[in-house]
Specification:
The structure is a homodimer. In chain A, about 25% of the residues lie in helices and about 30% in strands. Chain A is of the alpha+beta class. The first copy, chain A, starts with a helix and ends in a 10-residue tail after the last strand. The relative contact order of chain A is 0.16.
Amino acid sequence: MRESAFHEYVQSRSGKNPRGVVVGPGDDCAVLDVGADDLQLITTDQLIAGRHYDPGATTVELIARKALARSVSDIAAMCGRPVAAVCTACFAGDDGAMAKELFDVMSAFGEEWGAPLVGGDFASGDSTVLTTTVIGMVERSEPGPLLRRGAKAGDGLWVTGAIGASFESGHHLRFTPRVAAGLELRRRLGVKLHAAIDVSDGLGRDAGRIARASGVRVEVDAERVPLRDRARGVERSIGDGEDYELLIAVDSGLELPPVLDDGTAMTRIGTVTEGDGALLRWEDGRVLDASDAGWDHGS
Amino acid sequence: MRESAFHEYVQSRSGKNPRGVVVGPGDDCAVLDVGADDLQLITTDQLIAGRHYDPGATTVELIARKALARSVSDIAAMCGRPVAAVCTACFAGDDGAMAKELFDVMSAFGEEWGAPLVGGDFASGDSTVLTTTVIGMVERSEPGPLLRRGAKAGDGLWVTGAIGASFESGHHLRFTPRVAAGLELRRRLGVKLHAAIDVSDGLGRDAGRIARASGVRVEVDAERVPLRDRARGVERSIGDGEDYELLIAVDSGLELPPVLDDGTAMTRIGTVTEGDGALLRWEDGRVLDASDAGWDHGS
């Protein structure tokens, strides 16, 4: 089963949420009510040697950094702030030798990003797999946690940073999760911020997720997508994945500043319309189904 | 590096806790202050095919059950109540076919045990590894979250249920985490409940952990340890591991009921004294260093 099919299955099975569960499986984070002033976010992700990083060519520092950054990015996608992290590692062969450095590096990045490493479990096995869980908090006041659903026809579609060639450029190992950007967007826009996702599986596929969750069509203007230096054209770049940028839908007509307080660039790349699916549209009228671009983790 | 050595390293590195972190790495759960009436608990654990279960002889239901139960047991060890769970799975070969059933079974047990499954990530890789993270809550009022430290010379040492032969009997796959017992003990004993741990790596080794964390000696009376039907003597049983019973230190002279409200048996098995380490002591005067018994995950 492909991962997308599995996720659809999970969502189809998750009807009524149990008490305390505000948003169940299927978004970047689950949202919980634990009786605090703010709502709680929780997300978990795997980093698999040979798939998410090249074991022969990646330092322990970058492995640890990426393992944590991917989950912190999910907190950013809900416009929340990270609170703490836990990590497990199963080490194949000699990889166990990196346990201490992995812990130290992840602790350091955890403190830097507001998600101190508070627990873990290390073991040996036949392949090297890291699992990082991050919890965060988000204010209950509007717009609350930013979900994939909520985009409306007429909304502007904006993206942080740049897209494409994440692997070739090393961005997938060195990115800083967009926590500050998410918090600033939330503060600036309030209820005019309608939907958000972090671009992990490709801009096309993740735009399609906003479309499906919101019951709208997302139209991306091909010429407007900001591309990384080494990106090979927009068509390919929206399928590259691992950008870990924020893709947001905001109230129609709203103009965002081109640069946020922490220096993050904001670019308007399209529009939400009535319909379904995600399209990549060129000025010459050419159109591509964007939701099929990108990669399906778990295929 | 053995896992125990790694954990000592982690604790030695974890001096001052960051803001919001009440108890960092090194106990059954980390304890966080997220601004709620209660404190928060978080714990994460791995279940590795071929190590924690026999892949050829274990149903998907029992795999899912154990993956969740181990982490819920850590919440029980702090005398807390579970709130939610997330799970990742890396599947080798055809194991991916069990994803749906795994999710369904874990969801069902999660609801039964108060830890609904709210998120996850499934992928394929070279070995099958599940990681389950559970969060819980525990009242701030005394005794607060029950830690390994806190045992005092003179305390009585008690254990829930029975010990030994967890693998041979199938207990390691079918146990119900001692959440109800932990909550009842907390309610009944209040500040007279001094320390707690769940017996996962063997009664001897886990008694040694209470001793080390509390700066005391734990003396276990060999003839008093309640053994499972298929257990092969106390000496071997305190090293078997995977009992997932609660081992607690309570105020001297305190008598607990032999059976808790949910039917869990309570047995006094020893005494806390001044000194260090954990001893197994027979009536004929024979003494064994108990802390070396049990298994070291990660060896």
